[in-house]
Amino acid sequence: MGARPVSVLRWRPMRAEDIDGVVDVARTAFPDHFEARACFAERFALFAPGCFVLADPVTAGVKGYLVAYPWPLGAIPPLDSLLGTLPDEREAFYLHDLALHPDARGLGHAGPAVRRLFKGLRALGGQEVALVSVNDTLAFWRGQGFAAVAADDALRRKLSSYGPDARYMRRAI
Ligand SMILES: CC(C)(COP(=O)(O)OP(=O)(O)OC[C@H]1O[C@@H](n2cnc3c(N)ncnc32)[C@H](O)[C@@H]1OP(=O)(O)O)[C@@H](O)C(=O)NCCC(=O)NCCS
């Protein structure tokens, strides 16, 4: 396999002015799972340490984002909904989205975002991260150290709203 092309894009903490760019990337990455701008703005307001963007350092254009926040294991936040508040505990986290603009895929940017998130959560005393794999990304998430776990009936019902290939996955921090 040949070397990957060099990319100028870099991950950095999300800022309030990035939200519109985040929403644009979300629209292209998850065309079947609409989430309102307010959902992204709320996650950022509630837990900025779990929000990162992949951006061009010169133009500041957003080409990717990662959003995660404290959330109980075995529970999935409803899509396109405001959370209101987060649990006080900083042990279990939910990786809500990792998405790259199509132009920014295949360049090796995904792993560094996950590593950056885990480093930050470890420093907060985090123990585990869960997510819902969609878009045929089971193998991708396995490559990032996550494993699919069996879902009980309640979890299965919630997963069904994410599409037939949705799987609940977890990884220890
Ligand atoms: C999933 C996504 C973030 C991966 O980004 P990417 O730029 O392709 O990933 P990278 O180039 O950093 O690749 C990282 C590794 O994962 C592998 N990989 C990427 N997508 C994969 C997939 N769908 N299945 C299996 N492996 C995959 C790459 O081959 C690479 O492996 P390597 O390190 O052994 O070379 C990107 O495809 C995306 O934004 N998709 C749309 C949004 C989405 O579905 N997000 C996940 C929702 S749960």
TrEMBL record:
UniProtKB keywords: Transferase
One MF term in the entry's GO annotations: acyltransferase activity, transferring groups other than amino-acyl groups
Residues of the N-acetyltransferase domain: 9-173
Cross-referenced SUPFAM superfamilies: Acyl-CoA N-acyltransferases (Nat) (SSF55729)
Pfam families assigned: Acetyltransf_1
Superkingdom, natural source: Bacteria
Protein name as it appears in the record: GNAT family N-acetyltransferase
Naturally occurring in which organism (per UniProt): Novosphingobium resinovorum
